[in-house]
Amino acid sequence: MSCLALNASFEPLTIVPARRAVRLILDGKAEILEEDSDRLFRSEKYTVPCPAVIRLVRFVHVPYRFRRQVTNTFLFARDDYTCQYCGRPKSELRGRQFLTRDHIRPLSRGGLNSWDNVVTSCSTCNNRKGGRLPSEAGLRLMNEPKEPNYVHLVWAVRSVTNTQKKYIRLFYGEEVLDAVAVPAVTRDEPVL
Ligand SMILES: [Zn+2]
């Protein structure tokens, strides 16, 4: 069970595990806006309805650089869990192959760890490329990497309930909700 956490300004911030949401409420750091009465959260001491949407009591300033940080969770989501060189999705990787972060211009050659210089690559393509530029390794990118919209990323990696969607709509409007309404697919649970 996961809970949508809003900033004091009602800006949707992230999805947190129910356990953490309950902790924030007990500590007086958040208030419950919606709870899932069908589900109970049990700990040693208490049993409470699972929070579905909470709002932080105090406004939390989220630094721009934090929002824009490249993490593998968001990078792989941006690239739809697909190697940007050979086009294979994660589900088609075999044996010991796995998804990696590739720096298009290698760090060793002055490349940056920025959204427009990193792509999702399977380990095989990444090894093949080594410390070279894609063109030098005979590789071609499927898409031009761009900095994604932070909100898109958060919802791309999590499926949200209808109750939670209500608050996304409230803050961002219907258009954003439509744009980020990705079909619920079973994916690796990212740690946010
Ligand atoms: Zn590949």
Number of discrete helical segments: 7
- Give the number of DSSP strands: 6
Please give the alpha-carbon distance between the first and last residues: 14 Å
Structural class by sheet pairing and helices: alpha+beta
What ions, cofactors and ligands are bound?
zinc ion
Supply database-style keywords.
6 strands, disordered C terminus, alpha+beta, 2 domains, DNA Binding (I), subunit A, two-stranded antiparallel ribbon, 192 residues, binds zinc ion, elongated, four-stranded mixed sheet, single chain
What features would you describe in this structure?
- It is a single chain.
- The protein contains seven helices and six strands.
- With 192 residues, the chain is of the alpha+beta class.
- It has two domains: 95 residues, no CATH class; 69 residues, Orthogonal Bundle (DNA Binding (I), subunit A).
- The strands form two sheets. A four-stranded mixed beta sheet has the order 2-1-4-3.
- The radius of gyration is 19 Å and the shape is elongated.
- The two termini are 14 Å apart.
- Zinc ion binds next to strand 6 and helix 4.
